[in-house]
């Protein structure tokens, strides 16, 4: 018998689990014991066996306003009936302009131009390409080098994995982009374990950018890309002053600074963007996920005025940037996105995240002393709970905790032996209590 074939008698599990090659999943392990989600509302999912689980990860860090919110659902339904698709190459539609304008007003500083894509990976590729083309447009075509960071996650395109720094996402895919270098990551258990919010230690790690500039020469470097908070690697919070220092060094050498805000955008850190929380304005910002509350796939690259304007000097009948996607500014995405921004504003969702951040921090750090917990990290409404790897293999303890938590009613996110939490930002204190109550039980029940 094929273990991947599960009878659907009295269950919502389909007969054929074999055909779908699942992303970032241990397919054989999963299909032997599948976890299927069949419904969602606000802070909870419904599982295929009829249980309610609290969504500790906002889906994949993306459903910031909670699930199946009526205004977003209705906006999508209306748009689908009115105009499903409109091309955006040499054509346009009103909602795309409206959405971009709303986003430009929300963004800090002069990050006031928006290029649409459909996923974080596409947003990253877009930003990297704009960075290189920007320098060329200004007559500095030798600036093609890109600097990422160890442990960084920038999606799965060849650009993103080249500047990314998670080894398993890179090692089997060949030589990747040429001319990429990496900053060191900012994590050190010895120096910063159990820091609340931004660690005091680690600012000096930004100085490595000076070393890289000396090695390659500034005239060859286009951009530096970092996540303000490194999410997928397990929630690494930037040391105090670190992002400021990166900004200063980039300014000194004419290098563009890109913040990958795919996770930190739209309220996660307690303000609209991490750029605001940390008080550093990058030259470009990549976003996705919370952009449409994940109801329709969409991404947006924000650029500062000087970046955009550098492309606007040639003949007016020329296409300025030979880049775009069939689904850039998809009509459904724009409708969902505008409704999402309305909801964020009308319900004060970012403000709720900010107001609850101290309570969240206390809840996170209440796990100090629980067995096997070796670090706790938090900012806004996100957290990393790191457990010691077990001798039988890195990641096994984490996986067991993740499964136990799910059985007990909490969906969390797992990376290695770190549990990452990032629930919808409509949460209450009661939800925080529920999340940490279940997680503590789960950790304690695993060896
Ligand atoms: N960049 C960051 C910082 C992310 O966290 C992610 C996804 O988690 C991505 C890019 C890739 O986004 P997507 O999966 O939509 O391509």
From TrEMBL:
Query: What are the transmembrane regions?
Result: none
Q: Which SUPFAM superfamilies match?
A: PLP-dependent transferases
Which Pfam family, just one, is annotated for this protein? Aminotran_3
Q: Which UniProt keywords apply?
A: Aminotransferase, Pyridoxal phosphate, Transferase
The cofactors required by this protein are:
pyridoxal 5'-phosphate
Q: A Gene Ontology MF term for this entry? A: pyridoxal phosphate binding
* Gene Ontology biological process terms from the UniProt entry: biotin biosynthetic process
Per the record, the similarity remark reads: Belongs to the class-III pyridoxal-phosphate-dependent aminotransferase family.
The protein's name? Aspartate aminotransferase family protein
Source organism per entry reads Ferrovibrio terrae
Write the lineage as a comma-separated list.
Bacteria, Pseudomonadati, Pseudomonadota, Alphaproteobacteria, Rhodospirillales
């Amino acid at each position: 018998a094929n273990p991947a074939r599960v009878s659907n008698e009295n269950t919502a599990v389909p007969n054929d689990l074999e055909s779908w090659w699942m992303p970032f999943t241990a397919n054989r392990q999963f299909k032997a014991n599948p976890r299927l989600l069949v419904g969602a509302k606000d802070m909870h999912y419904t599982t295929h066996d009829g249980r309610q689980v609290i969504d500790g990860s906002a889906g994949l860090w993306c459903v910031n306003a909670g699930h199946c919110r009526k205004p977003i659902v209705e906006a999508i339904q209306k748009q689908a009936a009115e105009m499903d698709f409109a091309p955006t190459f040499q054509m346009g539609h009103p909602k795309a302009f409206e959405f971009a304008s709303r986003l430009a007003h929300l963004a800090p500083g002069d990050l006031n131009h928006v290029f649409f894509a459909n996923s974080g990976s596409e947003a990253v590729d877009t930003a990297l390409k704009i960075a290189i083309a920007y320098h060329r447009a200004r007559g500095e075509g030798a600036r093609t080098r890109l600097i990422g960071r160890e442990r960084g996650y920038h999606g799965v395109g060849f650009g993103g994995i080249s500047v990314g720094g998670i080894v398993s996402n890179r090692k089997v895919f060949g030589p990747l982009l040429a001319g990429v270098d990496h900053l060191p990551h900012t994590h050190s258990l010895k120096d910063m374990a159990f820091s609340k919010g931004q660690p005091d230690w680690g600012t000096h790690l930004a100085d490595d950018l000076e070393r890289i500039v000396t090695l390659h020469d500034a005239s060859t470097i286009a951009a530096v890309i970092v996540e303000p908070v490194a999410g997928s690697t397990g929630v690494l919070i930037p040391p105090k002053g670190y992002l400021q220092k990166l900004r200063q060094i980039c300014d000194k050498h004419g290098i563009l600074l890109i913040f990958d805000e795919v996770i930190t955008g739209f309220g996660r850190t307690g303000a609209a963007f991490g750029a605001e929380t940390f008080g550093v304005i990058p030259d470009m910002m990549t976003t996705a996920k919370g952009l449409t509350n994940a109801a329709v796939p969409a991404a947006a690259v924000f650029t500062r005025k000087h970046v955009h304007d550098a492309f606007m000097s040639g003949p007016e009948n020329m296409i300025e940037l030979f880049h775009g996607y069939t689904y850039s500014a998809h009509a459904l995405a724009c409708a969902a996105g505008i409704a999402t921004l309305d909801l964020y504003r009308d319900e004060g969702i970012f403000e709720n995240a900010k107001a609850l951040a101290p309570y969240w921090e206390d809840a996170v750090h209440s796990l100090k002393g629980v067995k096997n917990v070796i670090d706790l990290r938090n900012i806004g409404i996100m957290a990393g709970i790191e457990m010691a790897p077990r001798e039988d293999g890195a990641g096994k303890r984490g996986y067991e905790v993740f499964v136990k938590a799910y059985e007990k009613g909490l969906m969390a996110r797992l990376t290695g032996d770190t549990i990452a939490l990032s629930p919808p930002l409509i949460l209450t204190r009661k939800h925080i209590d529920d999340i940490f109550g279940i997680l503590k039980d789960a950790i304690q029940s695993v060896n």
